[in-house]
Amino acid sequence: MNPIELEWQHLKKDELAAKSFEDELDLAYAVMDGVQTRGKKGNYSTQRVKFSSHSSA
Questions:
Q1: pTM of the model
Q2: What is the torsion angle, in degrees rounded to the nearest 10, for the CA atoms of residue 21, residue 22, residue 27 and residue 33?
Q3: Does residue 41 form part of some domain?
Q4: Does residue 17 lie in a domain region?
Q5: Does residue 15 belong to any structural domain of this protein?
Q6: What is the largest CA-CA distance in the chain?
Q7: 11-47 b/e (C-beta count within 10 Å ≥ 16 → b)
Q8: Which superkingdom, per the lineage (predicted)?
């Protein structure tokens, strides 16, 4: 398992487990909060990147 997959597993287990979400937006906010929390715990910086949603097709 690569380091990103390992972090995702920890994020799911430590930050998202046993929570329910009304919709995808609630889940997205929980993931963002979880990434930030894990960054603080691990003493590393996190940065949110927003990708364009425009399709080129």
A1: 0.73
A2: -80
A3: no
A4: yes
A5: yes
A6: 41
A7: beeebeeeeeeeeeeeeeeebeebbeebeeeeeeeee
A8: Bacteria
At 3, list the tokens.
């380091």
Tokens of residue 17, six digits: 């487990």
Q: Which of 35, 41, 3 is nearest to 16 (CA)?
A: 35
What domain count does the chain have? 1
Local confidence band at 4 (pLDDT 50, 70, 90 cut-offs): confident
Domain that holds residue 14: 3-34
Provide the angle, in degrees to the nearest 10, between the axes of the packed helices 24-42 and 3-11: 110
Predicted local confidence at residue 24, as pLDDT: 94
Predicted local distance difference test score (pLDDT) of residue 57 = 57
